[in-house]
Specification:
Length: 335
């Protein structure tokens, strides 16, 4: 009798498994990456923006990483500070000749004192996105890569989930010119927190192809690596290469590519690159995943709704989307 009951339970479990497999088969294979956190709703790359994003149940939260003067890996999008902090008021005499305040010129102790704000235009002093969180309000701080990993791992424990991290090495060449090795420091923090192989819930991304190749071949990293691609900002290594040659070369060291979706589709922004849409098919032929950036509900290009824009991801057969609106993307792809 006991055997029969457990057999029944097993059959039900298998059926349930099959059904849930089928349910996840349609649109829900799409990976949702919270771009700089829930950056449409709270100032980008702040811990509150990451906590809010976490609650929206994306697959990954994104971290951009830049080094401080004393080699602390800081989560921030730009290598300079003036568009997302009050640095110009707090340290007015610390800008370089180009008028910018570089993260690398400040110690972590100094960086910790800055107020973070919703992104603004330093010339007009106005918000970059009109309808987002008001600039220079409430109180937000910078944080270190380890602070964010500890928060995500803590939430994974307390909420019994497994949200991944998606770390970008920002401008490694700039860091090298300043006498610093950003990749080595980031890899060592990742290792400390248990991220060393493709099986760990971590993806490492970079625009710099030489650096990403080095991470695989010289530093012997076994992490899932994504080569970011933006024509016009394309790595020297890919200049004068056909899309076929480029993708083949990437497949030697990376597991995926991250193209700018606007360069693949027609739109009034007129940034489409002829034949660039082919890279999706070419990438899949080389077993590379394709995670495109950045899907924003408040930047619809020619689309009449965010759903219509997200549909593009399905039509293009993308494997993942970076989005400032993880709640809407999760709603669209997963529910
Ligand atoms: Ca990024």
């Amino acid at each position: 009798m006991k055997f029969k009951v457990s057999l029944c339970v097993s059959i039900l479990a298998i059926l349930g498994g099959l059904m849930s497999c089928r349910q996840t088969k349609n649109k829900s294979n799409m990976i949702v990456i919270a771009h700089r956190g829930a950056s449409a709703y709270l100032p980008e790359h702040t811990l509150p923006a990451k906590a809010l994003a976490y609650g929206m149940q994306p697959d990954f939260l994104e971290q951009d990483v830049v080094l401080s003067k004393d080699n602390v890996p800081v989560v921030i999008h730009d290598i300079h500070l003036e568009t997302t902090t009050n640095v110009a008021h707090a340290f007015p005499d610390r800008k370089r000749e180009d008028g910018k305040f570089y993260v690398i010129d400040f110690t972590w102790k100094e960086l910790e004192t800055l107020q973070v704000t919703e992104r603004f235009n330093t010339k007009t002093q106005e918000a970059v996105f009109d309808d987002r969180f008001p600039i220079h309000t409430s109180t937000f701080k910078l944080h270190r890569l380890q602070d964010e990993i500890e928060m995500i791992q803590g939430l994974n424990k307390s909420m019994r989930k497994n949200v991944g991290i998606y770390v970008e090495i920002k401008e490694p060449q700039f860091h090298e010119n300043e006498g610093k090795n950003l990749s080595e420091i980031v890899l060592s923090v990742l290792e400390t927190y248990g991220y060393t192989t493709r099986k760990d819930n971590c993806i490492l991304q970079c625009f710099d192809a030489i650096e990403l190749k080095k991470i695989r071949q010289e530093y012997k990293s076994d992490l899932f690596l994504v080569q970011l691609l933006e024509i016009g900002y394309l790595d020297e290594a890919f200049k004068d290469k056909t899309p076929q040659q480029m993708i083949k070369e990437i497949a030697v060291y990376a597991d995926g590519i991250g193209p700018w979706y606007k360069q693949i589709i027609d739109g009034k922004d007129k940034v489409k690159i002829p034949d660039f849409h082919k890279i999706v098919t070419l990438a899949h032929q080389q077993n590379l995943k394709v995670h495109a950036f950045t899907f924003r509900a408040d930047d619809l290009v020619d689309f009449s709704s965010f759903e219509e824009l997200l549909e593009v991801a399905t039509t293009l057969h993308l494997d993942g989307v970076f989005t400032d609106h993880p709640d809407l993307a999760v709603d669209y792809f997963k529910k």
